[in-house]
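User: Reviewer 2 asked us to show a designed sequence for the structure in our supplementary figure. I'm pasting the structure tokens here. Could you produce the per-position amino acids so we can include them in the response letter?
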């Protein structure tokens, strides 16, 4: 509609699992809600977001590194069961 390209609006984030930088759109945003890691594919949920590649490999790496408590500035452990299920079902 407008003549703008999307190229400029392409911020990068670091995957909590493999620690590689990627375009925000290539990563899955995760927010913490009452101790649970909730996938936020549309990026609409409030709160502090963490980013991982939408793969079980990167999720497992992030869990093993205890990256979620660090990202969410909480004690954890954070429940990743629902997040894992959504990855098993969805992308990949
Ligand atoms: Zn990754």
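Assistant: Here is a per-position design you can include in the supplement:
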């Amino acid at each position: 509609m407008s003549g703008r390209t999307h190229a400029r609006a392409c911020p990068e984030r670091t995957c909590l699992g493999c620690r590689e930088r990627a375009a925000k759109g290539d990563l899955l945003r995760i927010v913490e809600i009452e101790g649970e890691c909730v996938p936020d594919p549309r990026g609409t949920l409030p709160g502090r977001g963490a980013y991982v590649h939408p793969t079980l490999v990167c999720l497992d790496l992030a869990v093993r590194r205890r990256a979620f408590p660090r990202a969410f500035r909480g004690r954890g452990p954070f429940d990743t069961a629902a997040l894992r299920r959504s990855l098993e079902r969805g992308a990949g």
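For the response letter, you might also mention the following. The chain has one domain: 12-89. The radius of gyration is 14 Å.
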